[in-house]
Amino acid sequence: MKNMLAYKWLENPDIMEFYQSFKLERKYNMNRLTNRIRTRIRTDIQNTKETTWLTIVIFCITYCIFTAFINLVVFKQNYLGFIPDLTMGIMNETLTANWVNILLFVFILILIQGKLSICDIGLKKNRFLSAVLAVITIWVILQLLNIAVAVVIDGKPVIYSGWNKYGAPYVIGSFIAQILGNALFEEIAFRGFLLVQLSKKCGNKKPNIILGLVISQLIFALIHVPNRILNGMSILEILPSLLIVFLLGVFFSIIYLFTDNLFLAVGIHSLWNMPLLIFDGLQSIWVVMAMSIVLVIAWEAIIAKLSFKSETSPSL
What we know:
Blueprint: H1 2-11, H2 13-46, H3 53-75, H4 82-87, H5 93-113, H6 128-154, H7 162-166, H8 168-202, H9 209-222, H10 225-230, H11 235-259, H12 262-273, H13 284-298
Helix pairs in contact: 3-5, 5-8, 6-12, 6-13, 8-9, 8-11, 8-12, 9-11, 11-12, 12-13
């Protein structure tokens, strides 16, 4: 009887007309949003100054050699081990090595030799505030979820064990090493620079974003091989690890392309590597990924409104 009533209800011409109109409007709005995002991404890349193939090739070759040297010689022999001792863990080897990377490869090679501006590699100061607010939001939600999980399981919040195990300076220093070192350099180099420049180079009149993304993130995955060797991984362990790194590179690339905010990608990358937990609870990487996806989806309607008018000139 209920099925018959439901069937008759659906047969109502006014209801069917409203339903079809709703479907068409939703499809139209979705297509409009998709086209707007696609157009904006292409426009952002087209408006970025193009460097030379020589700069790109020099970067890829020299950075591969340099990162192999850092991991297999400097880190393996613990040549920078005195730095955490001198700073009580606030500064560590990762931060120091990536400051060298930023000096050599970002300032000297990409900006000076490649003749690019700060904006050309994604660092636009009018994106900074919205990125900070978004990353803080993700971090706070992560802590609240961990409190809720701990209360349900243990009856009370559980302080993150790393604070006692490693000490506060080490935990804080590890996060600083990401947001001011490793994550900052990798996002500038492989998303702000290589992804955009290869997209421009691989296209004809329009940027070939897919091809640029795949090539740049394959390179991003391969430069992690020395680190995997340093950690004692076998070939069978390295291959799936590189696949994960490649997919993460694609994920960070999507965040950057969809939001045009490299600072946001840096912050999310930092939380992924070092979430700076206060409370134990959920697997933090999945929470960070889920919240990042939500932010990317909502960016056009919410977060992007906090940005000022798009810049076209270099900013410091």
